[in-house]
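Practice problem: predict the structure.
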Amino acid sequence: MTTQFTTKRGSQTLFIVLIAVCCGATLAPVHAQKPEAIKAKTQYQVSTLPGLGGTSNGGNSINDQTWVAGYARLPNRNRHAALWRSNLLTDLGTLGGPNSSVTWGVKNTAGIIVGISQTATPEPLGESWSSAFFYSTPNNVGYINLGFVWEQNQMRGLPNFPGGNNGFVTGANNLRQAVGWAENGVHDGDCVSPQVLRFLPAMWTLGPPDLIQDLPLFPGDTSGAATAINDNGQIVGISGICDQAVGRHTAKHAVLWENGTVTDIYPNALAPWWNTPTAINQRGDVVGFAGDPAFAEGDIIHAFMWTREDGIRQLKPLPNRTPKHVDSEAYGINEARQVVGVSCDADLVDCRAVIWDHGNTPRDLNDLKAPGFSAVLTSAKDINNNGEITGRAADPITGVLTAYLAVPVSQ
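Answer:
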């Protein structure tokens, strides 16, 4: 398993993975439609988003302008970061290397897309880095990776910490703040080969010039990553040790950064691994997934939601499935507290896109599709304040994986 960092399955990644600066005035939370207004819409019109000629596409992010971002595979198997607007695909390109991808929810409405990209520079230490799990073989390793920002039809790489080679950007808000993680050049014995260098959770103030600053780790930890940010400067992520640079023991603590402090939001987690927040809304509600004490490699993980008033709440997998579903992962949340993600059996034979709509037990989005869409919705990666959802679907005959947009409609 990998966290976005990544999720535990390379073929179904997202993403799987402080001083909160608000640049002046603090923005008031932007509240969406009333929860009951969205909840009444229990059917979805689903459409396939176009690709670049390959057989694997995925939507990982959707903002309130219905900009869907993710990746699209080319016929040569390389992946490019992709942006869909009004069902039209924009290939965001790369920073010179074969692959790029948007891997997490990028929620701003300021025209900023962030993600990861390979450069043309060979990786000098032989690291695969966190981003290797978000690309296709055979070119998923061998190049330096940078976090990127795309705006005004141009992609640029963001700086790492001094001495570091690789970076990863997950999200950006409307204050021109982006978050992720980056290497700092420290050779760390707790890194597991092929990872060599320590990395830290990072926030970039977008320029020009683009400036990076590290975020404080939980006391005693040495590496970490930031995974999402809202317009109030609240940031979530993970804190632990270097390990594989793909979660696991780096995700010992699920943390929230605000007002210059770092807080473990899941202090009673059942396992010291894979405890990963994936999204935060403007209210400060957090969703993600947590490790299971019986599965150190992340074969099975469990979705959660955290709110300031109630703390941690477990989000269950689908009931009454054959084979039984035991794995759940939450990836997106809107202001109405609708949560989307995935539910799977232990062997990942049956994975379904799900929505937790103000309850602990999800509904299968496949049961809510309007007639006419035959592909199986295998994951739901993000939801916006209009209740629109994106993720990945699988053609039951050809096995081709496509990005989709699901729009709620009144019955």
